[in-house]
Specification:
Layout lengths: L1 H6 L8 H21 L4 H12 L11 H21 L2 H6 L1 H25 L5 H12 L6 H6 L6 H29 L4 H32 L3 H21 L4 H11 L9 H24 L10 H29 L3 H12 L3 H12 L1 E4 L5 E3 L3 H39 L7 E6 L6 H11 L6 E10 L5 H19 L5 E8 L2 H11 L4 E5 L8 H14 L3 E6 L9 E5 L10 H15 L2 E6 L1 H13 L4 E5 L9 H4 L4 E6 L15 H8 L4 E6 L8 H7 L5 H23 L1
Parallel strand pairs: 3-4, 3-6, 4-5, 6-7, 8-9, 8-11, 9-10, 11-12
Antiparallel strand pairs: 1-2, 7-12
Helix pairs in contact: 2-3, 3-13, 4-12, 4-13, 6-7, 6-9, 6-14, 7-9, 7-16, 9-15, 9-16, 10-11, 10-12, 11-12, 14-15, 14-17, 15-17, 16-17, 18-19, 20-21
Length: about 725
């Protein structure tokens, strides 16, 4: 009314600029204001939707544009959940997800049918459909978990898996009940439904990755990649609707299918999360609020009764499912809160079910009015249930997530403070390799505040001119932009020196570099001159974990990392340092790690897998004279990673000098990485140790860990 009188505007607003401006300011100020009074900003967005919607101040209508953006937001939530899930943990927790899915489906179904029959006096079909609405849920509170960085918690993993299971089952119940009321259910119906859903799932999970890998290999434009991903999300959602299930299932499966092609540390992942959290997901929550007609709650006692019963039964049944799950798997109270919070919110599937049930006419009353499968009271009660469950879920999820995140931070703070500062140096000279080298460095680095990325370009004394300086600065600027796209700060260095070797080795000493990542041109092999410069120059002067990378294809499109480890590698002081880097590649890309090593080394690798689950395979290999056998083992889309050694060290063997020629001749169509571990005895290492004796402490701890682990393995074998 005020806007209408002061500005002469008609309500609801029709000016798209004003509408969009108002929504943007709501999205901006809701978290700012509500965080001060400890209310989840998700609730603020829903309440804002109530106030500006057609049942509030009627500032704007819930028109097609709101519905479109809201639909994108809902699909985004499910897609990001599938994209961020740790596939190794998901497989490991699959049975737990199935068990939780059974709990969170059966308990609401049982209580829902009983309440429909005995408290609301509904028929069997109506009661079953009502119960299926209680069973389904929407991951509205997932952004809270994602923002606090605990998406890999076991409680979150099984909640996502259970949500998928119960949503699919609830939607199948919906399809069956509607078919019972509108026609017959025959054997053909069941066969057709089963076949279409099976074909849909297989198509998404097997064809989408092939299409995605093909696209990412050929197109590296950031905008094109984002539009492609968004297109795949909507295609998956559309295909789900074609086979008769809700689009959110298709969006979630699309996330699972593209999971390995979009690494957690990639610029593309950062853009997906940014756009979703900034725009699409808030639009969805505002749209949910605009559905709520609070006047209907006080229109008659029947509506109030139905709304109260629905809300209580839905909340109680989801809490019981979470409580039983906690007791079954011995989870903490905060993990129970996460499970309950993530599974309690009702929105998309519930809304779809009630609208479908409302539109099914099963007869007429004596006055000629239609008798609906779900009446007006259920429709209005569903809206109240959505508001209440979303509110409860937001508060509970935020409390549980904050407690878990705080506990994880305390554990991190309680760790010994002798952690060496991780400094990764990336020398750059070729503009075409910049993005892949930065992507590799962000993939292998640890997720710690002690990590630092440094990009270096060396201008040699014989090449100092304005053009060379301009080209060098252009390369450095591109590296800074690429790192920034992944939310990583990159320190840039432009150095003038006699030659590249001196420039790199001097920076390594001056900045106490721990890791060195050097790139090869994607269309060239490792030349004799380069290998000579490497072995006689950089490796003899720098005692750092050095990775020589030739990116034949984007890192995100790699299916497997084939890691070849020489015998006695576990005896080197830098063993755990490079192994952590390789392990980070598996964790952050989701690609399978295939190890070839001696049995002694394999014992350490298997122990590490038990500590952090990733998809890994272990094979015995010691005959480096037969190294060419890997030309049969390495497939297309594999990355070959070879652990090397400097001369006179325990893991060195004479075959290593032939590795560059083997790579050029037999592995030209693969990406590969040569890893030179940190090793004692390298020139100038004693100087680093003298300057900072504490730098040796973590490595001494690793050696002690090796000894302890050897003893543990020995005792285990004796028992066997």
């Amino acid at each position: 009314m005020i806007l209408s009188k002061v500005f002469g505007l008609n309500l609801p607003l029709e000016d798209p600029i004003l509408i969009f401006t108002m929504i943007l300011f709501i999205i901006l100020f809701s978290p700012i204001v509500l965080n001060k009074i400890r209310i989840p900003h998700l609730i603020g967005l829903i309440i804002a939707g109530v106030l500006i919607g057609p049942y509030g101040m009627n500032l704007m209508a819930r028109d097609s544009s709101i519905v479109l953006f809201g639909t994108v937001g809902l699909l985004y939530i499910m897609f990001v959940a599938g994209l961020e899930i740790d596939l190794a943990d998901f497989r490991k927790s699959l049975w737990k997800s199935i068990i939780f899915g059974a709990y969170t489906f059966i308990i609401p179904m049982g209580l829902g049918i009983a309440s429909g029959l005995y408290l609301l006096d509904f028929g069997w079909n109506t009661s079953i459909l009502l119960a299926s609405m209680f069973a389904s849920n929407t991951l509205i509170t997932y952004p809270i978990v994602s923002k606090l960085g605990i998406t890999k918690n076991k409680a979150v993993t099984i909640s996502i898996g259970g949500t998928l299971i119960t949503t699919v089952l609830a939607l199948l119940v919906l399809a069956v009940i509607v078919r019972l009321e509108t026609g017959e259910i025959s054997q053909t119906f069941w066969l057709g439904l089963s076949a279409s859903i099976s074909a849909f799932v297989l198509f998404i999970m097997f064809v989408f990755p092939v299409i995605g890998r093909w696209f990412f290999k050929r197109f590296d434009d950031n905008v094109s990649q984002y539009i492609f991903v968004l297109g795949m999300v909507f295609l998956g959602a559309f295909l789900a609707q074609v086979v008769g299930i809700e689009g959110i299932v298709g969006a979630f499966l699309a996330g699972l299918a593209l999971n390995r092609l979009i690494p957690k540390t990639s610029p593309l992942m950062n853009r997906i999360e940014f756009v979703g959290n900034a725009l699409f997901i808030p639009f969805f929550l505002i749209g949910v609020g605009m559905l709520i007609n609070y006047r209907a709650f006080i229109s008659d006692w029947e509506t109030i009764k139905v709304a109260v019963v629905m809300t209580v039964v839905a909340t109680l049944s989801k809490y019981l499912a979470a409580w039983i799950t906690q007791k079954t798997f011995r989870y903490s109270a905060d993990q129970r809160r996460l499970i309950f919070g993530l599974s309690n919110a009702q929105a998309a599937s519930t809304l779809a079910a009630v609208l479908i049930g409302y539109n099914v006419i099963i007869g007429q009353d004596p006055s000629g009015d239609p008798i609906r499968l779900l009446n007006d009271a259920v429709l209005n009660g569903t809206i109240l249930m959505i508001l209440v469950t979303c509110t409860i879920a937001s508060f509970v999820t935020q409390k549980g997530a904050q407690n878990i995140a705080r506990a994880e931070n305390v554990e991190e703070d309680d760790k010994p403070k002798n952690e060496i500062e991780e400094r990764i140096l990336i020398p750059l000279s070729n503009e075409r390799n910049v993005e892949e080298l930065i992507n590799l460095s962000t993939t292998v680095k640890s997720k710690t505040k002690h990590s630092k990325l440094i990009a270096l370009n060396v201008v040699t004394s014989g090449n100092v001119n304005e053009s060379a300086e301009k080209d060098a600065q252009k390369i450095i600027d591109k590296a800074v932009v690429t790192a920034a796209a992944t939310d990583n700060h990159l320190t840039s260095l432009l150095r003038y020196d006699l030659n590249i070797v001196n420039g790199i080795s001097n920076v390594v000493k001056e900045h106490k570099i721990t890791d060195l990542i050097i790139g090869l041109h994607e269309k060239k092999g490792i030349s004799d001159s380069f290998f000579g410069m490497l072995t006689e120059g950089i490796l003899t002067k720098c005692n750092t974990t050095t990775m020589i990378y030739k990116p034949f294809q984007p890192l995100a499109t790699i299916k497997r990392h084939v890691v070849v480890i020489p015998p006695n590698a576990e005896k080197e002081i830098g063993f755990f340092v490079w192994l952590v880097r390789v392990w980070n590649m598996g964790v952050n890309t989701g690609a399978k790690l295939v190890f070839y090593s001696s049995e002694e080394t394999m014992a350490f690798l298997e122990h590490m897998q038990n500590e952090q689950a990733i998809e890994a395979e272990f094979n015995r290999f010691t005959d480096w004279e037969d190294f060419l056998v890997f030309s049969r083992y390495v497939r297309e889309d594999d990355n070959l990673l070879i652990v090397m050694s400097r001369r006179t060290h325990p893991s060195y063997n004479d075959t290593m000098v032939k590795i560059p020629s083997y790579l050029n001749k037999y592995f030209g169509q693969n990406s590969y990485i040569l890893v030179f571990p940190m090793q004692l005895g390298v020139a100038d290492y004693h100087l680093i140790n003298m300057r900072n004796p504490s730098m040796m402490e973590p490595f001494v701890e690793q050696v002690q860990h090796l000894d302890n682990f050897r003893k543990m393995i020995g005792q285990f074998l004796k028992k066997k």
